[in-house]
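pinging the channel bc i need a second pair of eyes. not urgent but kinda urgent?? the chain im working w is below, pasted from the shared doc
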Amino acid sequence: INYYKLEEIIYNSSKISKPPEIDISEDDAAIIQFSSGSTGNPKGVLLTHKNLIINSKQIIRHYDISENDTMLSWMPYFHDMGLILFHIVFLVANTNQVKMSPISFVKRPMLWLKKISDYRATITGATNFALELIVNQLKDYKSKEIDLSCLKGILIGAEPIYSSVLNRLINLAYKINLSKKSIIPVYGLSEATVGASGSPLNKEPIIITINKDKLLKERNIEIVPENSENSLSYVDVGYPLCGIDAQIMDDDYSILKDLKVGEICIKGDNILNCYYNIPEQETFINGFFPTGDMGFKNNNRLCIIGRKKEIIFINGKNYYASDIENVVSCNFNNFFLFTYFIGVKDNDFEKVIMFFDLINKNEEINSILLQVKKIVNLVFGFPLNDFIMVDRKKIPKTTSGKIMRFKLSERYLSGFYDEFRKTYTFNN
């Protein structure tokens, strides 16, 4: 492999011979991008030059990106959204790019919005975690110095999008002159290069409320009015990008109709050919790539329910950890920095464990956890068996910020969190 040090190119360019011409095919490997590893060991996703160009053009078309846009991003380059979506795609589109340090964003989330306003950026992106930081600061925001009327799209993805967090942003958007039509939930994965679906431009985001019992007992979707009793809410992530065939499949990989819950399976020229060192036949089923994400279609729009490997089994029923977290976030967003739930087998008994940290350490923790127990039992019909208050840094996560629940479960069962366990007294 011929290589050159950057400083040699800058200071001694006259001494460097012309690099040899390399014959590269569109089907040659361009990068190996490792999957998040949120439900298992990360896999090397082998992406070709064709994958990168195709997905870039799909995204450019879906969001009408041009050289007249200005994109501003704080996402790091070791994250596929940071490298591919918010860099390579905009290189292909010949778009102006403004970069902000991820550390600067975490330290001062509102600085991100201020820079969008200052540079009059038209496109940016965020994760659910980033939105939580923003809405927590927006509720007390009174200044008029931030004006986001320039934004045509804030693409929200990379991790599950909680309806409670999205609703809070929608309700606070007026404070920063942000159009609700600029709030765009998206869905993607490493194996699709980066993007698979997204809400369309110039349309308000859609939150779907469904009958909880129909979902948990029958894996059917019955859409009900917002705030209905016995309901759960999910964020619609829009239409598949042009050239992507997205289907919902059952356990036998037969295609399901609209409003039936199954695994999201995708096919298209942006999809990986294979994993590094894993045969192609083990990656695809009938030409489709099984994403491991559970969801449903509604008039060809996708909605994500949760991860197939993050299901908690209680009394023969399937529950999604993200559902529990969404309900708790909706009811207790002023108390918790985070809440994560896992199910673990302990002597053939399925236990549900809550990991959390408090915003205010002086809160009466027993009464708060009692209310959480009551809400979870009311909505889902099972008890919480253990509570672990721990710093967020002790929660295993991927480089893209996703919770590694399988490692969290392993650590719990190994006794890693025993030192953080406390006895809480609940007076009903």
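so The radius of gyration is 23 Å. and Residues 153 and 223 are 27 Å apart (CA to CA). — does that match what u expected or am i reading it wrong
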